[in-house]
């Protein structure tokens, strides 16, 4: 252990340029690059070394090299969510699976597929559309979102209302551990041997246990039709009441997103009204009935049905705005669904007008803001304001995560919050899977 710690100490001295030279010498010129600016940016570092293995075997070799040299590694896919999480204690190398982008097996008759971790989810779903199938996940971000990144961050967008999260569709993984070992969990078919479902352990683990290399999913038949309906109100309470009525009815939207008014809102949204966007996926006749029933439940509220091109543009922009550099702060708060309106009222009292979006069916709220949130406040008052937001969420039975914030804020506040009694178990898992702390050091909950 002492010798290994001295290796890690020496690893701190290696420059990104020297590290790139080593990787190119061993794996080829196109397997490593020096990234600057926003490309694969993790924190406020000036530049960073990035490795690009082409398959699971090469990933294993790279991790074995990194482990032997004591390099701390940050796993990545396309790199669009690397700013999420706490600041790393330090790191030498980003390992991106972006070149690992093949569909290894796809069996339309079985509704299953196995793909490499760097496969773009949107690209695979376009291919599966030919067989009227899809992996029913829609992570926030743009079309670069990779399967491995979606699993590692447990990212789920508006469709979680109907289809859940990555845990619900993942049936198997192959991972590479910090020391280069390859292990597999789960399987490639829906019915696997009974036992511990270890593949779920990697969902939301944020790359702290192993690097996800391959993933197997069950698929769904692609609904033949879709339609988006938007309801409007000057207050959130009316729309939250409509959400409650819809939840208690036979209306089953695939997505149900509550959006606050904001100045630069594109049509059909505006700066004066809250909006509730409902997306329906089903047979045409079923959708028509559900839209009619939703209108009855929301009688008294103005509503409009978006054309297909307008709806497509809205949902695309809605997803991409979550990774837009325009928002200096992105907070994610949660509460019991029944307390959604109360949480929104708490937020409006605590902060100036913010861009608010909520998964209305499950009480998850995301806030977009900039430095104007804290105009006139001293540093300690800014931290106090964030702590107050966290307390408000906890009072409602939820929690607050800081998905994005300037580095000076991340240095002073825990972006994840307290994890409670699970803290000890999470540290034990980290110790078992990555005993030397080489993967994503210090970036996850409880300092893992």
Summarize the structure in words.
The chain is an alpha+beta fold and 448 residues long. It folds into three domains: 1-222, 2-Layer Sandwich (Uridine Diphospho-n-acetylenolpyruvylglucosamine Reductase, domain 3), CATH 3.30.465; 225-321, Alpha-Beta Plaits; 324-410, Alpha-Beta Plaits, CATH 3.30.70. The chain is 31% helix and 22% strand. It has 13 helices and 19 strands. It has helices at 2-11, 16-27, 56-69, 121-128, 147-153, 160-163, 236-247, 284-297, 308-320, 340-350, 379-395, 407-410, 423-433; strands at residues 32-36, 47-51, 73-76, 93-96, 103-107, 112-116, 133-134, 170-176, 182-186, 211-218, 220-221, 225-233, 255-259, 274-282, 303-305, 329-334, 355-359, 364-369, 400-404. The strands form four sheets. It has an eight-stranded antiparallel β-sheet. A hairpin with a 4-residue loop joins strand 5 (103-107) and strand 6 (112-116). Helix 10 packs antiparallel against helix 11 (379-395). The longest helix is centred in the last third of the chain and has 17 residues, at 379-395. The chain is globular, with a radius of gyration of 23 Å. The two termini are 19 Å apart. 43% of the residues are buried. The model has no long low-confidence stretch (mean pLDDT 91).
């Amino acid at each position: 252990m002492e010798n290994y710690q001295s290796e890690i100490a020496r690893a701190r001295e290696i420059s990104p340029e020297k590290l790139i030279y080593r990787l190119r010498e061993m794996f080829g010129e196109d397997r490593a690059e020096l990234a600057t600016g926003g490309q694969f940016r993790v924190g406020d570092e000036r530049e960073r070394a990035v490795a690009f293995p082409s398959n699971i075997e090469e990933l294993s070799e790279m991790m074995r090299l990194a482990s032997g040299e004591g390099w701390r590694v940050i796993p990545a896919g396309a790199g669009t969510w690397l700013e999420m999480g706490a600041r790393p204690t330090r790191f030498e190398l980003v390992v991106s699976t972006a070149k690992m982008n093949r569909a290894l097996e796809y069996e339309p008759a079985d509704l299953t597929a196995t793909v490499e971790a760097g496969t773009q989810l949107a690209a695979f779903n376009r291919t599966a559309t030919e067989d009227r199938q899809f992996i029913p996940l829609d992570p926030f971000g743009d079309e670069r979102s990779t399967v491995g990144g979606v699993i590692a961050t447990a990212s789920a967008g508006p469709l979680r209302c109907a289809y859940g999260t990555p845990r619900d569709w993942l049936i198997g993984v192959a991972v590479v551990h910090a020391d280069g070992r390859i292990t597999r969990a789960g399987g490639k078919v829906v019915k696997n041997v009974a036992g511990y479902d270890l593949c779920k352990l990697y969902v939301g683990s944020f790359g702290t246990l192993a690097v996800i290399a391959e993933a197997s999913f069950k698929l769904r038949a692609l609904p033949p039709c879709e339609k988006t309906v938007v309801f409007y109100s000057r207050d959130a309470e009316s729309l939250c009441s409509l959400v409650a009525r819809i939840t208690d009815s036979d209306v089953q939207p695939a997505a149900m997103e509550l959006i606050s008014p904001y100045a630069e809102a594109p049509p059909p949204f505006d700066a004066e009204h809250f909006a509730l966007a409902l997306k329906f996926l089903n047979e045409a006749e079923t959708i028509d009935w559900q839209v009619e029933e939703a209108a009855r439940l929301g009688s008294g509220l103005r509503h409009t049905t978006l054309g297909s091109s307008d709806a497509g543009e809205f949902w695309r922009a809605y997803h991409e705005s979550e990774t837009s550099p325009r928002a200096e702060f992105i907070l994610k708060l949660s509460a019991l669904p029944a307390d959604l309106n109360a949480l929104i009222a708490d937020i409006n009292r605590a902060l100036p007008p913010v861009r608010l979006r909520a998964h209305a069916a499950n009480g998850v709220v995301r806030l977009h803001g900039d430095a104007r949130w804290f105009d006139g406040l001293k540093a300690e008052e800014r931290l106090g304001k964030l702590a107050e937001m966290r307390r408000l969420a906890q009072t409602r039975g939820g929690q607050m995560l800081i998905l994005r914030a300037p580095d000076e804020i991340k240095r002073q506040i825990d972006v994840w919050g307290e994890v409670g009694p699970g803290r000890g178990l999470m540290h034990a898992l980290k110790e078992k899977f990555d005993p030397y702390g080489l993967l994503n050091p210090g970036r996850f909950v409880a300092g893992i």
